[in-house]
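From the shared-data thread, chain only:
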Amino acid sequence: MTDRTPAVDAAIEAELRLLAPEVRSSPELLGQLLHPEFTEFGTSGTHWDRASIIKALTESTNRTARPIMTSRMRGVQLADDVVHLTFDTESNGHLAHRSSLWRLSEGEWLLWFHQGTPFSEDGPSEA
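Structure, as C-alpha cells:
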C-alpha cells in the first residue's frame, strides 16, 4: 500500500537521492541524509552504523557509476515523523528487497534504519 502524503513523497525523494552515485560517493551529501542514530542490516548480513556506512560507501562508489535501479517503491506514513518505504533494487545483477524507516528530524527527513535482503528472480513467488 502506498499512502501518498507529503511526508511519503519527501521520503521517496530522499531515498532516490541516497541511491545516486554522486551522493553515495560524497561523505557530506551522504551524511546530510543519514540520521545520527542510523543503523543498517545490509544484504551481506553486515550490521552498519552511520560512520561505517559513510566510510564504506564513499570508498567504494564511483561517481560515474550507473545509478541503482529501483522498482515497486511503496510508502506509508506511520506517524507524523516516521515514514516506512519498501522497494526492490538491482545493481550490477544483484537484486534486493529493501526496507527503510525515515524520521523527520529538525525539519529534514533522515534515514534512521535500513535493511536489505538479497533475492533471486528464480526464488519463490510473492504472496
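The mean pLDDT is 92.
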